[in-house]
Each structure stands twice: as C-alpha cells, then as structure tokens.
Write a structure and sequence with these properties.
The protein is of the alpha+beta class and 950 residues long. It contains 28 helices and 33 strands. The chain binds one RNA strand of 83 nucleotides through α9, β9, β13, α13 and β29.
RNA sequence: GCGGGCGUGGCGAAACUGGCAGACGCGCAGGAUUUAGGUUCCUGUUCCUCGGAGUGUGGGUUCGAGUCCCACCGCCCGCACCA
C-alpha cells in the first residue's frame, strides 16, 4: 500500500476490488484532505472570553478544559502510548463541542531536559535546534492522528516567551513566605511589615531596625518559599549534577543514567513544599482522582501524627519522634542513626573504636547492599546513657542503620515489647524487654504460648490495643486503660505539662531540591550581591535567556567520586556570569546564579499558559483564568475538567504542580485551589516481546508462531508482555498504522481494546476489525463503484428508529464516562443492524455520522459532506435520544424457576406485577419446570424478570 | 511486610444501582465471490458425555451473586527497617 493511495498504473485494478471501497489507502486520502481543510478553516480555534484570542460571546457559554500530559519531544517521536491518551481526550473534546461547550484543547511540549542536552554534548549541535526538529516531527505525527488541537495555543517550555513566566513565577515564590498561622503564602513584604511593626518578633528578639541589612536579609531568606540551603542533597558525580529525592531510584542510583548517588551537604535551591504538606493531603478530598493515585500522594507525603519526646543525655537533649508516645514507659534503650550529629559527643572513649568502625561500615554500605540484605539488625553501643523522662530510668544509647537520618529526628526511643524492629534489636543485643501492655489471651493462644508478662517467652512484639501495665509514675497513670488512642492523648498532655515533649505531626515529604547544574533548563532569574545575598531580577529583565555556548555539558566526574563538586556549564561563561545592574540602589556588580531549574518547573503551570498563550503583560489574564480554571456553578472548586496521562507522574509532576498552583492561589494569581480537578490515568500499551536462549530480546516482528511455540530465525524464543518500546524490540509506530489503515481505524482500535485505564497488549492482527467496521459504515451509505451517495438506500422503519435512539442514548452515556470501548461496540451493533437492512436509511444517516464524528472524525466529515452538508461536522449538535423511544411496548422477560431460566415471556413493558406473574405461571415450560407443584413464592421485578420458587 | 487494584471463552473484553453471563472485536469452522491466494460477504462459534456445567478456590447473605460479605490462592502497580 503506497502512501498516497494511488494505484501504480502498471498494476491493473483488481476486478473484484471496487474503486471506492474504504481501504487503508482511501482512508489516507480522505484523512489528509480533511486535515488540510480543518487547518484552512481554523476549525479548532477556541475563543477566550477576553484578550487577543477573545470573543466576548463565549462568556456565557459553558466551558470544558481537556488536558493531556504534554510529551517530551524525544528524537524517537511518539510511541503508541501517546495516541492512546490523546485519542481519548480528542474524542472527549470533540463530543463536548457537539454538546455546545466551548472546549479548550491543545498540545504543548515539555522540551527542557537531559536527552536533548546529552545529544548536544555528543554532536555539538545546540539543544534548541534538535528540540525544534523533534517538535516539528511530533507535530506532524499528532496532526496525522486528526487531533482537534487549537494550534494557536501550543507552547514549548523552552520558548523564552514561555519560560519568561516560569521565571516570573519563581520570583513570586522567592518573594513569598508561608504564614503558618493563616496557612497561606503571603508576599515577603508583608513579613517585613510584621517584623518592623513588632507584630512578629524577630528570631533573636531584637527590634527589626537594629538588625543590619545583611542580618535582615538572612532572616527573610529563612522564611522564603524558595530558598538556598546548605542541606543534604543527592549528588550524582556521574551526571555532574544534583538530583531530587524523587529522582533517586530505590537502589540509590540516578533515575536517568543509573549512576551512583551520594548524600552530601551542598548549597542548593530548595522549594518549601513541606509548608504545604497538610493542604496537599487535605485538598485531595476536593479532587476527582482515583483512590490509588490519592493513596500514592498521601503515602509520599507520609503524614503521621505522634509526639516529639526529649531525652537528656551527657551530650545534651536527644529529641525523638514517635507515633506511640503511650509506650514511653516501655522505652528501654535509644537508637540513633549512624549519621546523627550527637553521636560523636555521646561516644565514650572505650566505645570509640567500635562506633567508628560501625559508622564506617554503615556509610560504605551501598544502598543496593542495604536493599538486598535481609533485615538482620546491626548496631553499636555508644557507651552513654540517656534519661527516660517519664520514669527517670537510665537507658543505653545505641546507633544502628535501621534508624534513618532522613526521617523524623534521626533518633528513636526503642520500645521492644511494642515494636517489631526494636524487639529484634533487643533480642540481637540482649537488651531488656519490659512489658507495658497485657496482650489478650487470644494473642498468646495464637502463638501457642501461655499468657505471661515475661517477654522472654514472647516470639515477637505485641502491637495493638491492650491494657497498659507498669505504666505509671507519680503524675501519670495509664495502667488499666485499654485503648491506645486514650493512652496517647494522656501521655501527650503529660509531656507538654512537664516540658518533656509535645504532640506533633511528622512528614516523609521533604523540601524540593530545585537546582540542577546543567545547561538545558530555565536559568534562575537571580543575582547575588557582594555579601552573597540573592536578589531576583525585576520583571522587566525577564526572560533571562539562556546564554549561547557551544559547551553544554556540566563537568562530570568518576561516578564513584563522592567528594567531587558540581560545576555547571553556565559557570564557565564568565562574561555572562558577572553583570552590572541597577536594582534600585544604583549600578552595582552582581554575580548571576549559574544553576538551571529542573525539568519539572515548566510542567508546573503549562495548563495556565494554554489559556492565554500570547499574553505578554501577564502569565494569564485574570478574566481568562477565571473562565477556564475558576470555580464552577456546580460547586466544583475549579481547575482542568479532565486531565489524562500516565500513572508514572502520580507523585512527581502532580505533586509539584499542585504545590505551585497553591502558591499562585494564595498570592491571588489564580482562582482555584487545585489545578487538575479530574485526573484519569490511561493504561500502558503492552506488546509481546521475545527473548532467545541467552535472554537477549529479538525483533518481535521476525518471530514466527508454530503450534503455539515461537521461533526466531529457526531458534525457539520465549514470549512475555512488556511496555511497548525500543528496549524490548516490540514497538509499533503510530505512523505505520496510519499509513496501512488510516488514523480513524487506529483511533478506533486503540479505544476498542478495553477500558481506558487498563493496560492492554497491542495485537497488530486485531486492527483490521475496526477497518472492516468503518468499511461497512461506508458501504451502508456510499456506492463503492462511484464513490457517490447510494441511491438504493432502504426506508427508515420503526424498529430501526428505536435501535437508533437506544444507540444514541448509550453512546452519549459512554462518551461522557470515557467508556469508548463500549461506545464503539454500540455503534458496531447499530451498523450491523443497518447492514442487515441493506444500507443506512437516508433519514438515519445524519445521526449515524454525527455519532461517529468524535471517534472517527475524518470519515465522519467525508460522509457529512457526501450527505450534502457544507459546514464542518465539528460543531453540529450531537443527536439526542427521545426517551419515549427507548422503551418498547412489549418486552421479553426471562422467567426463572428456582434461579434457573426456564422460559421467556412477552409482556407489555409497563405490565404490573400481577400480570407478569400470571403470564409466567401460565407458560407451559414454566409449568413443566414446576412439575405440577404450586409455587411457594413468586418474585416479580417489573420490566426485568420473574423468579418462581417451587 | 504495608497501601491500591485485578482474576469472566482460544485471545482482547462486555454485563452501570445484585436480575437472561460472554455484547463488540480478533481468531477459528463452514459456505458465497475468486484460476488461486488475499480481499469482501453470509452463517456458526463458552464447555462437555446434550442432559447439564460454568465468571480463580472454599464458605456465607439472598427468591436470585461475575457483582455483596468472610477466608484462601494467584497476578499487577506503588512504597518499603518511616519509628
């Protein structure tokens, strides 16, 4: 099949192949023609309520904002997962245009990032050039799929007109602080006012005016939502850059490149996302997201309620975090992370060698080893004792690597009778295990031991509600209380009253490491003065464009060289780095920040720019923002109406974007508290992959099947299913399928494979089914010899009219609920009915084509015009079912006897229970099944079925 | 281990609040068209011993269970010594 669909003249037309049969070749001709027509007629341009894209008449029109997770423009182009999600959103967008909504639907490119930079390093070609080429390529692929994007709204995160506003948002975040009392971000100037007026005391209590400008700057920097911190970061020498926690794999390597990652203290940009932890958890309740994604976000944020407890020790106060303050009476030792700052001071001379050796082992232990190893407890005694504040007991202080410096305070109180890890540790090192709860008899029975408070008989720790024992001091008595919640509350009250601790909330979430020592990203709009304080550039100096260079790579190091230090490519551009500016106090020399932002930055707000892509006065016009993103009349708090993308972004992009949006919301720049109201995660496209005896993947398209076994070049291979892609050698390109079958067939196949959220294996041989369906639709209206509308179409009968209305009703329902697979099945059923009729009655043709339009838009447009219409099908009203035609006058209902279907009876649709019962009992098959016995009971569900109990 | 989800024909899957299990598609079988293959069209297609059996297994609730409840088995995704 050649690309233009024209038959080569040397090959005569097959005599049984009609000239206008809907083949892949004809589909291609039709599709390319309509794609040009749509462009020429600006069919998919969506008006705004105001501004340069404005048309005030849409202000009263209902809106719908449909968004895809925008792609990274990789050199490999689109993979099949993209058309899956994109087709779904396109169908949804097209359907809602036909229900009268003003639909915002476009596509942009998340184009900063490592692959383009690495390609540039290899080839010397500027990443902007390869990025533009890749974007052009992907635009062509998207266009071929018939996606109804508004082309005017497309953006690329790498475009200076776009990242000007990414930088501007950064300056907004930098110039804000989180007011923990009001739980909102506020401009930093308001913090200055509070300090100056004395409403808020300064950290050391001195009047604000008494602080030097540098001291004032330090205080403010400590409050900013974007701040520079000497903090533990993930340094990846192999990449020459730091990476965020989220970009480190479970085995301690870089997400990209798979290099070792080391914990190091370094000065880096951070975002204070932890300030929003509670709101990020609580506001999940506002969202129409799946429980699994909400669970992943909650789990990532890791909110847990407990208490901080202060223990005194020779080295000073050791503070621990615990979720079980009620078990403090059972704390018989403490464990600190090996990296805990107090370890040196706690270590006694006789233990110095042991502790040093253990710490050396712990730090040398790679993260992989820590994963692979079993959970056998190791540790070392520091030689020191701390005082348990609740009973005054001296308890030994140990270090062990099962306590993590990065969680809580890096120190725990060990309650071996009530915590399995502490129990194992105590057993391992012969530490005391005092019992503080009386486990129920069933617990002992379950373990086959006699009830006893002698923990040496216990096989494991007891966790749960049970009466406290040995849990009293002079002022607190928990003994006899049986529920843990009360125990916690009473203990917390005691801790606070006695200054030994306080109830608190701990989070797994940590602040977001926001700088990268790379080239292909947004430069920070920041300069440093001679005292080293950061200043953001004023708005009129934005965008701060990436300076040209031909040296794109950061300095990379031996991947195992943990002590190396980052050097950004921008560091080398000394003429750019040093700059003279007047920031309001006269011209001064400043040093620019040489970091760039992480790739996530651009994707944190792109949906807002889609709304108002050409605005050069603001990142978005407030009226436009309220229209597309604001609170809705139905009570929804606003945001994108439907956001479709892969589950791989469940915690990274979706958390960061929610955070930025909330800051913008607090500062009054947007009107909705959440960016994405409804989220839908599409499944993956899987495909069969084949491995030879050595475990190497072989080209899946060269594999032959014989008797259920698979062979590659004569040798047996084993089959598995995996994500379609280059590494498994099983990728099918969307372009090929479009060339062979047409985009409409591809769209239908992708949607018909199963529910949108399910992963499904691609089967090339199945694609033809959807081509045959469209072919039959075509043949039911078009003369395959002439290509003209058929003149022999049957007349519309009542039964067909009813089938049509049922289809309309079902398809509407399915499209609204993203059930495209069943929508397609209903249309096939309708068409099969029409095929038996001998064609599609002219009176039904418009409605058939309109229902097809969202799913197979090119074919629908072609048929729409063959039917004599001159305008695009895009904005036609989607057919509406007549409810009176959805129910038949008489219906067939099954009759069950003792739960088994024995007969079917015809009754009036509105027959009452008595009539149905009488009809059913009169049925000969029913009587036979009853065997002459009188029914004991008859259950009638009007309009549905009869069940007789014999 | 914890959290989320899922088990239905040869395959992808339908069955929305408990009410005719297997819609629709692939594949397969038979037939028509064709010199043939391919294409297209028509008919059939859950399984077997033709009376039944049947939605991972075993219980339960119910007139009635793929759907609800309990236990177990298996698979997928996420997190993982999180105090």
């Amino acid at each position: 099949m050649n690309a233009t669909g024209e038959q080569p003249p040397s090959e005569p037309q097959q005599n049984d192949q009609q000239a206008f049969r809907y083949t892949g070749a004809l589909a291609q001709q039709i599709e390319l023609r309509w794609q040009d027509w749509w462009d020429e007629h600006h069919t998919f341009e969506t008006p705004n309520p105001a501004g340069p894209l404005g048309d005030p008449t849409v202000r009263e029109q209902a809106k719908l904002f449909v968004l895809d997770m925008f792609p990274y423009p990789s050199g490999a182009g689109l993979h099949m997962g993209h058309p899956l999600g994109f087709t779904a959103t396109d169908i949804f967008a097209r359907y809602h245009r036909m229900t009268g909504k003003n639909v915002l639907y476009t596509m942009g490119f998340d184009a900063f990032g490592l692959p383009a930079e690495q390609y540039a390093v290899q080839t010397g070609q500027h990443p902007a050039i390869t990025t533009d080429q890749n974007i052009a390529n992907i635009r062509a692929q998207l266009r071929r799929l018939g996606l109804s994007h508004d082309p005017r709204r497309s953006i690329s995160t790498t475009d200076p007109d776009y990242y000007r506003w990414t930088q501007w948002i950064f300056t907004q975040i930098f110039n804000s602080w989180y007011d923990a009392d009001r739980k909102v971000a506020r401009p930093i100037a308001e913090l200055v006012d509070e300090f100056r007026s004395g409403v808020r005391p300064t950290p050391d209590g001195r009047p604000w005016a008494d602080l030097s400008p540098s001291q004032q700057a330090d205080v403010l920097d400590d409050h900013r939502l974007a701040y520079i911190s000497e903090a533990p970061v993930n340094w990846c020498p192999g990449l020459g850059t730091v990476v965020a926690n989220e970009e480190v794999t479970a085995d301690g390597r870089s997400d990209r490149g798979n290099f070792p990652v080391f914990k190091r203290n370094m000065r880096q940009w951070m975002m204070r996302i932890t300030a929003y932890a509670d709101r990020l958890v609580d506001d999940l309740d506002l969202l129409d997201w799946t429980d699994s994604i909400k669970a992943m976000q909650r789990n990532w944020i890791g909110r847990s309620e407990g208490a901080r407890v202060h223990f005194s020790s020779p080295a000073g106060t050791i503070t621990v975090f615990t979720t079980r303050p009620d078990t403090l009476f059972g704390a018989s030792f403490m464990v600190l992370a090996p990296e805990h700052p107090l370890v040196d001071a706690l270590t006694t001379p006789d233990q110095a060698a042991t502790v040093a050796e253990y710490r050396r082992q712990a730090s040398a232990k790679s993260d992989i080893a820590r994963q692979v190893e079993d959970k056998t407890k190791t540790g070392a005694f520091t030689g020191s004792y701390a005082t348990n504040p609740i009973n005054g007991e001296q308890i030994p202080v140990w270090i062990a690597d099962y306590v993590l410096m990065g969680y809580g305070t890096g120190a725990i109180m060990a309650v071996p009778c009530g915590d399995e890890r502490d129990f194992e540790f105590a057993r391992q090192f012969g530490l005391p295990i005092p019992a503080i709860q009386q486990p129920p008899a069933s617990w002992f029975a379950g373990h086959g031991i006699d009830p006893s408070l002698d923990t040496s008989t216990w096989p494991q720790a007891f966790v749960g509600d049970a009466a406290y024992v040995n849990s009293a001091n002079g002022t607190l008595d928990l003994n006899g209380i049986v529920d843990v919640a009360t125990g916690k509350r009473r203990t917390n009250e005691w801790l606070e009253a006695n200054g030994c601790g306080e109830a608190t909330v701990n989070y797994k979430l940590r602040d977001w490491l926001f700088s990268r020592q790379r080239y292909w990203g947004e430069p920070f709009p920041v300069v440093y003065d001679e005292s080293g304080h950061a200043h953001t550039l004023p708005d009129e100096l934005l965008p701060l464009e990436l300076p040209p260079t031909d040296s794109f790579s950061p300095r990379t190091f031996d991947p195992d060289d943990a002590m190396s230090n980052p050097e950004s490519p921008l560091d080398r551009l000394t003429e750019w780095v040093w700059v003279e500016l007047d920031l309001g106090d006269g011209p001064r020399r400043y040093r620019r920040d040489t970091n760039v932002m992480p790739q996530w930055a651009g994707s944190c707000w792109y949906e807002l720019r889609y709304c108002d892509p050409t605005n050069d006065q603001a990142f978005i016009d407030p009226e436009v923002e309220r229209y597309w993103m604001g609170p809705q009349p139905d009570g929804r708090t606003g945001g994108v109406d439907l956001y479709v993308g892969g589950v791989e972004h469940a915690v990274l992009h979706l958390l960061y974007a929610r955070f930025w949006h909330k800051v913008l919301f607090d500062l009054g720049h947007v009107s909705s508290p959440e960016p994405y109201h409804r989220l839908f995660n599409q499944g993956y496209i899987l495909a069969a992959a084949f491995q030879d005896e050595r475990g190497m993947y072989v080209d899946a398209f060269g594999v032959e099947e014989r008797d259920g076994k698979h062979f590659f070049e004569g040798r047996p291979v084993t089959r598995e299913y995996g994500k379609m892609g280059k590494s498994l050698k099983n990728a099918v390109a969307p372009d090929e399928v479009c060339a062979d079958y047409g985009a409409d067939t591809l769209r239908l196949y992708l949607m018909s494979m199963g529910p949108l959220d399910a992963s499904r294996p691609w089967e090339s041989k199945d694609v033809v089914g959807m081509l045959r369906f469209l072919q039959r639709v075509w043949r039911n209206l078009v003369d395959e010899d002439t290509g003209a509308l058929r003149t022999d179409l049957p007349v519309l009968d009542d039964a067909t009219e009813r089938v049509l209305h049922r289809t309309i009703d079902g398809v509407r329902n399915d499209l609204e609920n993203l059930r495209f697979n069943t929508a397609i099945a209903k249309l096939i059923e309708l068409n099969n009915h029409l095929t038996k009729l001998g064609g599609c009655p002219r009176e039904a043709a418009d409605r058939l084509v309109l229902m097809l339009a969202p799913l197979a838009p090119h074919l629908a447009e072609e048929l729409w015009h063959l039917l004599g219409h001159t305008d695009t099908v895009t904005y036609q009203q989607f057919p509406v079912a007549d409810p009176t035609l959805l129910v038949d006058d008489t219906i067939e209902v099954p009759v069950q006897v003792n739960g088994k279907v024995r007969s079917r009876i015809m009754v009036a649709a509105d027959a009452d229970q008595a009539t149905m019962e009488a009809t059913a009992l009169a049925d000969p098959k029913v009587q036979a099944a009853l065997g002459g016995n009188a029914p004991k009971k008859v259950i009638v569900v009007p309009g549905r079925m009869v069940n007789i109990v014999g």
